[in-house]
UniProtKB/TrEMBL annotation:
Reactions the enzyme catalyzes: 2 H2O2 = O2 + 2 H2O
Region described as Disordered: 1-32, 509-534
Protein name (database record): Catalase
Keywords: Heme, Hydrogen peroxide, Iron, Metal-binding, Oxidoreductase, Peroxidase
Annotated residues for binding of heme: 75, 115, 164, 361, 365, 372
Record organism: Bacillus glycinifermentans
Gene Ontology annotations for the cellular component aspect, listed alphabetically: cytosol
Cofactor dependency: heme
Amino acid sequence: MSKDERRKVDENSKDEQLEYYRTDNRGKKMTTNQGVRISEDEHSLKAGTRGPTLMEDFHFREKITHFDHERIPERVVHARGFGAHGHFQVYEPMTKYTKAKFLQDPSVKTPVFVRFSTVAGSRGSGDTVRDVRGFAVKFYTEEGNYDLVGNNIPVFFIQDAIKFPDLVHAFKPEPHNEIPQASTAHDTFWDFVANNQETAHMIMWAMSDRAIPRSYRMMEGFGVHTFRFVNDKGKARFVKFHWKPVLGVHSLVWDEAQKIAGKDPDFHRRDLWEAIERGDGAEYELGVQMIDEEDEFKFDFDILDPTKLWPEEMIPVRIIGKMTLNRNQDNVFAETEQAAFHPGNVVPGIDFTNDPLLQGRLFSYTDTQLIRLGSPNFHEIPINRPVCPFHNNQYDGYHRMTINTGPVAYHKNSLQQNDPAPASEEEGGYIHYQEKVEGRKIRRRSDSFKDHFSQAKLFWNSMSPVEKEHIVSAFRFEVGKVKSKDVRKQVVEMFNKVDRKLAKQMAAGVGVKPPEKDESSKVTLKSPALSQENTRKSPLTRTVAILAEDGFNHSEVIRVLTAFLKAGLVPDVISSHLGAVRGDNGKEIEAGNTLQTADSVLYDAVYIPGGKDSIERLKKQKAALDFINEAFSHFKAIGAASEGVDLLTSAAGIRALSEPGIVTAASGDALDAFSKELIEAVGMHRHWERTV
């Protein structure tokens, strides 16, 4: 395939392929699925107007049968998901490291489909629960589909895939009463943790703010496992994959996350959908960490252990490309629900390692798709279909789309001249890396996998004081929900092996005595890259609630709104009613939400414009005062101008205008400086030094 031909394999190629399957029923006549036109769709065929329905009513049977079967089994894990389309472009040729073609030409846009998800909850659970988030990317490359199936946390709970059923059974609702949904705050999960201490590092991440992201657009993604890059000379390097969000890594606070789950359980999917619809989309840079094969054993951790990360300060992340998500799904079921990901879907230049968790996933994912999608032909569903041609002698099965011709369904053969024939390496055939493997058959893990606490301590050391405080609170909430005092005691004793101070703070909150002996890990290293305090900060796409009633200062609002929009903020006017809100000069703006349909937890910041009549009306509404107070307690930026300052100080009870993240303007003359300062405060995400 020439370079020009390769360029045709861009994001439009997948769109064109899907176009055949898209349908629009406007102006069309109703038919059965066989194409027969239907004359009546209100009444089934009966023997008389009051008689029984007849078996021969083929339209009724088809319609009901399809309805009865229109739900497929949800995924056991990652059931609640949401996806988007886009493209990936590499920044520079990676020829030195891998022969994967989609990583060679910066001018080529490789189409992608990404599915984000929670892990523990069912399809009907909330988006903002404390949980790991799935981050699965399907690259539709000219060499076939490549799936990078990862999470927003770089490590995992267990080291060997044989433990995966045990882990999932532990964190799912307890089987005797099917409680609790989408939560690990119960006995069986923490009993599993305490008795499988390889979970220590992952639990530290899960109890951190990483488990309650602000947005899919503001969370990292990781391939989790160690893979291999292989170049065209056959040289291999170990590699880990990272997705770095352009907007930085930001999280909710726990109180906020719980309230959003009730106010808007679709918060994350709505955020992604609306961002793409208004043209903002989502961007992530792809980074790789690489280790030469000869350096495999030079570290104090096993690089194949999925409960370990490679510290970025030790093995730097090299940024090699960018993924842009810019098109929403046409149909969530047809695309997100039927998307079949598999870490075993690789292309030449990307290979596997002996990570025992990865090895198990290479079996499990195919097995899962067979039961969910009902057939080995799930690759023919449009969302899973590669953009390049595919040829083999695999025939038949449920839902077969391909119409195979000729008498031959086997290899080798002479009747069809052994066609399709295997491709050589020079012709793009996938050649597995020839790793030398020796050893006795044994059910045991390497001794190099036995250290469960050093990196858990590294993570703890790397957190800011606020992040540590949040981790302690998360432990107290989760373990505090455990009924068994013995399990609570075991958990505290386990994390005493991470850090003594952490264990003592946990113990004080969950009703058990702190361990007498200090067994803290002796690790003193820090990794600044692990703290969200060191992330990128930007006001782009941040949402601002504007509280206004009739009589607001119209000229002020227009000036501030103009500055907001120029800075990339997303403002929303909130009033006591939808529709037109009249300003002090008689001009109107549109309220997009009311104090009954909106809540401060759904926004990043609050702006209270002046206008005497507007402020007097807001003072009389408890919902408005609660809105401001809650935003303050969640450390968000709040701006108030002229009379709005009075509402902020006297009515809402904000103790001091000097509090971090509180921006005020006494008059319209200072609006430009006010807008600039408020925009900067919004871009900081939170103001943790505030006294609340």
